């Protein structure tokens, strides 16, 4: 999140940072015990807002380094004390537990005596939840980027911006900053300074696999597995740190010995059990890569087959089957590999990999203990689906040419694109447009995508002019964008208004009531068309309706290389680097369909574009004009944006729809009530008939 654009709820955090900065005494010279990262962060933020950018950069760099060193010191000490102080087994009879509890006390003493020389008192490094959340979201890199710009350190600024962006792909300002860095400095290769190596190796392995470079794919995927299991061990160790007693205030905590041990241990165990999710989740995300660990073995079993190493292929297939024993394709693959080895190696001697068996055995035992605790101790626990099989290998080819001559009983290697989670509805299109004057232009196929339609004559020239007149009387700069007049680009001004605002202005006589109602009526007409064309079996509700105009700012258009609205999807966070769209907050995950109804064409630029998931490859470009409407499903299948408006003003009615009545637009419900009241008072409904005139 860029400095200066923090949400309103961040004020308490800024106050907290100010207190920490005062307590920390600034970003002093290094020496002695490790300085707490939260105090260094606070000093860095204070220096940033005080205009001391060199001091801000120095403190923020140290804060990031301190946090890494804190984790490394804790890992080293806990690992050392695990080796030096073994936990003794409890003995029988009275006092039999003393040996075990004594070893627990000795290990605790070992950890403390190891940590204190470097870290100081444990309490110094207990950062507030808000501060930890900032580091998880990589917010310090946003401050660092701005500080580096002021210091003219463009390469460092570019890498800091990229690092922040990898955890915040929805952040519009950072997207634009990155494009500017690439243009002004020619820097294309950017470094993620917080990259997780096992993730990087996995992604590289998949890229080589897609190019059919199987030996390189094997090298990176094997390295990714090694890194994964090493990170898993670290994750397990880090879970042994302090935990929060969610159902108890610490000062009033009166549990007995075994209750206290159970309470703390079950939280530690839940943390350890969730390591498989943690290791599959990219920084800053909520949702993990589905089926992440098993996918390594799935890619590897086929890659080894392609280079002729059938022993390794069978080993990896059997490893994958530990997680999904009923996967018919991989069962057939394993059988096929066994046939290839017949007469040379006994397939029964080829076992699944030991580390996979060990992890899965431990994971099942953790699950059992957590469920026992939930039943017997009153914990609320639901076992997540850690190995969701929606995640499958993505192969761009249907059948590799080198296998196409294999017998029909050869390997079935799941050579299909990654299946998306099954939608809760069947995707259709081509239904009636309901209104005889509406003109069909292009369907999904002609627009090179899925669930897309382009229509003309949705409203008339006169209605466009009337809507434009009412817009000039009700729009407010920054409306719909949290007050930001230039939310997506500094080179354009954005103004907007809602349906309810238009009707209120009409009722008060500030704009013609007929014109205000026109906004309401045409948005309802658009909703009916979208619901009918996409053959939806349930009601489509308004999620948000917004009349918006964007105006090119004079004197700022020369050499523009940005977009009016960066590439995004409407119900998920587009992640071009991972070729994914994460359906999680802050995205509006409840949106199902979108539509844009254009009001004018007397401007330059401003074309609406669809792209591939890479946010670069344009698949369709649409020039707005009066009465033209583009509608599409709101998911990751339809990334889109708007090219720069370089002259004039571009106006449109933007509409988002949902199939879930729980997410109906509140202002729309209120607008419906206003319309009902107006009709009862006979205050002159619009001359526009929103009912279908002729069903086509």
Can you characterise this structure?
By secondary structure, the chain is of the alpha+beta class. Helices cover 45% and strands 12% of the residues. It contains 20 helices and 15 strands. Strand 11 and strand 12 form a beta hairpin.
DSSP, total strands: 15
Percent helix range: 40-55%
What is the terminal separation in angstroms?
Answer: 49 Å
Question: With helices defined by DSSP (H or I, 4 residues minimum), what is the helix count?
Answer: 20
Biggest sheet character: 9 strands, antiparallel
Strand proportion, as a percent range, falls in 5-15%
Uncertain spans: 1-11, 19-25, 247-251, 394-424, 683-696
Question: What is Rg?
Answer: 30 Å
Q: Class by helix and strand content? A: alpha+beta
Mean pLDDT: 82
What is the overall silhouette? globular
Give me some keywords for this one.
procollagen-proline 3-dioxygenase; vitamin c; glycoprotein; 20 helices; globular; alpha+beta; iron; single chain
Brief account:
It is built from 20 helices and 15 strands. The protein is an alpha+beta fold and 696 residues long.
Which SSEs are present, and which pair or pack?
Layout: H1 11-24, H2 37-49, H3 53-84, H4 98-119, H5 129-136, H6 139-150, H7 154-167, H8 172-185, H9 197-210, H10 214-238, H11 257-273, H12 275-278, H13 292-306, H14 310-323, H15 328-341, H16 354-377, E1 439-442, E2 452-456, H17 461-474, E3 476-477, E4 492-497, H18 499-507, H19 513-533, E5 541-552, E6 563-568, E7 573-575, E8 580-582, E9 593-598, E10 603-605, E11 608-611, E12 618-622, E13 629-633, E14 640-643, E15 645-658, H20 666-680
Antiparallel strand pairs: 1-2, 2-13, 3-4, 4-5, 5-15, 6-14, 7-8, 9-13, 9-15, 10-15, 11-12, 11-14
Helix pairs in contact: 1-2, 2-3, 3-4, 3-6, 6-7, 7-8, 9-10, 10-13, 11-16, 13-14, 14-15, 17-19, 18-19, 18-20
